[in-house]
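Appendix B. Chain record.
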Amino acid sequence: MITARTSALFTGLLSLVGLAFFAALASGSADVSFGETISALRGTASEHIQSLVIDLRLPRAMTAFAVGGLLAVAGVLMQVLLRNPLAEPYILGSSGGAAVAALFAMTLGMSSLIIDLSAFGGAMAATLLVFAIAHGTGSWTPARLLLTGVVLAAGFSAATTLLLALSPDKNLRGMLFWLMGDLSFAFEPARCLWLLGILLLTGTAAARHLNVLSRGELQAAIVGLPVTGFRYLIFSAAALATALSVTTVGVIGFIGLVVPHLIRLVAGSDHRIVLPASALAGGALLVVADTLARTLMAPRQLPVGALTAAIGVPLFLVLMSRNRQNRYQ
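Structure tokens predicted for this chain:
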């Protein structure tokens, strides 16, 4: 049942997404007026404005929205899987594996396609390695999986530092931007948008199962949920979303941790609301962060990951503080 609060939440989020997209299309090193942006969307602008808005800024904004949505959805799934409020998409070492593989390819001077394939393969391999070690000869538990991910992530971090130290100076700037998130070459949003749509449809359809599993495996088993198989599905979906996100734009933190918490604080814990709302909020947050990264010090670009932290953390702390005050009133 859709309540007035839920309707207000989605209306606000959709409005935020629209404003974020419009700001992304109109802002940059060369600002475009309101009328010119509308004309470009209608296909009636001059050739220069049309190319700037439609060919350059729109695909980048759509990629940012899709990746932000994927990271937020992956964060929701990981928090359900591990039943830990601090779980986030990179908790299983996927970002570390992707970073090691991508930086190694950059050090060897490989093409962008090889770097992307290396990042995707490294992310998936790291996630599977964490799962294989945590599983051992018996069944895995959330605590064991979490601990294994943290330990291997520390190892990947050390390997990343070693690669940065051994890399030529000319490669360091590109490597550092990749590690902090870079949408400069993100002009193919189709893969991320398709995966985001599939995850939202299947996740919303299985939201009742997510609600039950988030309360504990025993309760889920009592009501007849196939816990083991469902956990594998959640694990695979979150790993794929994280790997594709890292491959597309590099490592962007905080979205998968902060956004699900913000949505749960506002809307509760029903995943029929949490999943789509988190996708909208995560997408809007990354579009805004990327727009700021392009405009604050234009024509220079700032690392997007630093701005997602600068935006997300204060919002999270303010909302947590308000929630605590309301609880004791």
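Further analysis of this model is presented in Appendix C.
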